[in-house]
């Protein structure tokens, strides 16, 4: 009997070498085990003791060794102990990085800067303040502001770290330095007889890097590559130059005269190709299309000249009630913007003789017109002394977008083709040049130097340099825009304060 009981006890005792994960017995089998039926191998006549298989309906592993989850939110004290243990033994563990995550991602705030001592950093991680925050609760804002403290950092901030975070006092904020714009011109040219007339356009810069300037009765060409000055034509004694405009390829120059003619010149051969009439009085503004030349006159008309045909003009645009002093084709050559002394701004479509749009918000003459090269249909216009505003329009939706009071007469506008910025030149009473950031219209630089109204403006082919002209008979060259991205490291040119004469 003693041997039988010993054998029976040994049969009921689990083997120490059995695996920790084992299938759970069926409920009926458990009841039968309690009755002692299944312990006896002879109780089942169909299965031998060595080949018996017990089936079950569920498989539940035992996680006794890993039942405690070291989640820092659930078990703060034990997690902190594990952080301390692993932080002292592992070289790749950085408590400061954990404090950074808690501060920026979970919103924890601390008035104490990060200590350089690793043990102190671990104590900061174990601080009980970290367990007071409810993790899963509704909040209306992006980040809850601390009571009595400053407003939370905007998620659109340039810096990835909040200024009032746990690392605000110890981590430097790496922000891109603002672009430096020289406040002085790097070159000045004397331009005798450069007229002080708001309604004229006497300066233009070609894609071949040649500057055309109308001085009195003559037109001069100045090469920006060689600084060589060439006299193109002389209209004396009965006529004078009122406007100049380069063709898009920079090989032909159109000259508008006081008598109302439009002359076309080949600048390489220095010869006049033809003269196109049609206007009765001076031609103060011109703009080139791919195949058309538009001219605006004091006779209030806009003529479309096709230089390929023998007729003087192919169409006439009638709408303005006073002198046309501003013309500009859009970058896609689909729309023509015209401004006049009647304070009106018109938008004309190609092959149409009636205006598509009319804007009447300006309260003075509209000479300054510029199309954005970055956004389709975005147009900027500037008003004269009684208006002083730069206004922005969407010509695709016929909407006024924005208006900025500059405080002085707006004479010219030009967009940068490399960045979303715009430059304006002004007359009464500031005589200054302003570089604006669009669309915020914050001033990046204000340039002074001209003693009279800055009536003329042109941009270099690379988009970095502008030239301005005024009634003080000077042309001043300024580097105001960054160059193309491929030339980002070549923006700092050698400054030369040379002063020379254009003729």
UniProtKB/TrEMBL annotation:
Pfam families membership: WD40_CDC20-Fz (PF24807)
Residue ranges of WD repeats: 234-275, 317-358, 447-480
Acidic residues bias: start-end ranges: 28-40
Location of the region described as Disordered in the Swiss-Prot/TrEMBL record: 1-50, 112-162
Pathway membership: Protein modification; protein ubiquitination
GO CC terms of this entry: anaphase-promoting complex
InterPro entries associated with the record: Cdc20/Fizzy, WD40/YVTN_repeat-like_dom_sf, WD40_CDC20-Fz, WD40_repeat_CS, WD40_repeat_dom_sf, WD40_rpt
Keywords tagged on the record: Cell cycle, Cell division, Mitosis, Repeat, WD repeat
GO molecular function: anaphase-promoting complex binding; ubiquitin ligase activator activity
PROSITE patterns reported in the protein's UniProt record: WD_REPEATS_1 (PS00678), WD_REPEATS_2 (PS50082), WD_REPEATS_REGION (PS50294)
GO terms of biological process kind: anaphase-promoting complex-dependent catabolic process; cell division; positive regulation of anaphase-promoting complex-dependent catabolic process
SMART domains (alphabetical): WD40
Record-annotated CDC20/Fizzy WD40 domain positions: 189-478
Compositional bias (Low complexity): 146-160
Residue ranges, compositional bias (Polar residues): 1-16
Family: Belongs to the WD repeat CDC20/Fizzy family.
Full protein name: CDC20/Fizzy WD40 domain-containing protein
Lineage: Eukaryota, Viridiplantae, Chlorophyta, core chlorophytes, Ulvophyceae
């Amino acid at each position: 009997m003693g041997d039988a009981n010993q054998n029976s006890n040994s049969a009921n005792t689990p083997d120490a070498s059995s695996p920790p994960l084992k299938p759970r017995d069926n409920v009926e089998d458990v009841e039968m085990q309690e009755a002692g039926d299944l312990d006896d191998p002879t109780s089942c006549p169909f299965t031998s003791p060595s080949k018996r298989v017990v089936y079950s309906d569920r498989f539940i592993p035992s996680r006794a060794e890993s039942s405690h989850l070291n989640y820092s939110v659930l078990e703060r004290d034990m997690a902190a102990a594990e952080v301390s243990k692993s932080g002292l033994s592992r070289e790749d563990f950085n408590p400061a990085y954990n404090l950074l995550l808690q501060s920026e991602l979970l919103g924890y705030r601390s008035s104490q800067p990060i200590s350089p001592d690793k043990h102190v950093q671990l104590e900061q991680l174990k601080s009980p303040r970290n367990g007071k925050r409810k993790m899963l609760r509704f909040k209306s804002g992006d980040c809850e502001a601390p009571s009595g403290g400053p407003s939370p950092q905007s998620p659109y901030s340039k810096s990835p770290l909040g200024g009032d975070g746990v690392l605000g006092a110890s981590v430097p904020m790496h922000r891109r330095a603002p672009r430096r714009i020289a406040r002085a011109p790097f070159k000045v040219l004397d331009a005798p007889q450069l007229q002080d007339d708001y309604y004229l356009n006497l300066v233009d810069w070609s894609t071949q890097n040649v500057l055309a300037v109308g001085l009195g009765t003559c037109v001069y060409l100045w090469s920006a590559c060689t600084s060589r000055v060439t006299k193109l034509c002389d209209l004396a004694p009965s006529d004078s130059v009122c406007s100049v405009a380069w063709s898009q390829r920079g090989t032909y120059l159109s000259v508008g005269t006081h008598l109302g003619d439009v002359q076309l010149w080949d600048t390489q051969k220095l010869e006049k190709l033809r003269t196109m009439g049609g206007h009765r009085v001076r031609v103060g503004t011109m703009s080139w299309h791919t195949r058309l030349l538009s001219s605006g006159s004091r006779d209030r008309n806009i003529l479309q000249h096709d230089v390929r045909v023998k007729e003087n003009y192919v169409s006439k645009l009638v709408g303005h009630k006073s002198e046309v002093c501003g013309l500009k084709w859009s970058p896609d050559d689909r729309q023509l913007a015209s401004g006049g002394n009647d304070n009106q701004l018109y938008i004309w479509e190609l092959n149409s003789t009636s205006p598509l749009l009319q804007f009447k918000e300006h309260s003075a003459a509209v000479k300054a017109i510029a199309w954005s090269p970055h956004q389709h249909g975005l147009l900027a216009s500037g008003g004269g002394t009684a208006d002083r505003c730069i206004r922005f329009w969407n010509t695709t939706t016929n909407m006024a977008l924005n208006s900025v009071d500059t405080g002085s007469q707006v004479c010219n506008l030009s967009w940068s083709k490399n960045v979303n910025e715009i430059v304006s030149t002004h007359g009464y009473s500031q005589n200054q040049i302003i570089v604006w950031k669009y669309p915020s219209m914050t001033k990046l630089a204000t340039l002074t130097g001209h003693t009279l109204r800055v009536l003329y403006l042109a941009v270099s082919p690379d988009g970095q340099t502008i030239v301005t002209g005024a009634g003080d008979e000077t042309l001043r060259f300024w580097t105001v825009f960054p160059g193309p991205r491929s030339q980002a490291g070549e923006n700092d040119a050698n400054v030369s304060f040379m002063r020379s004469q254009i003729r």
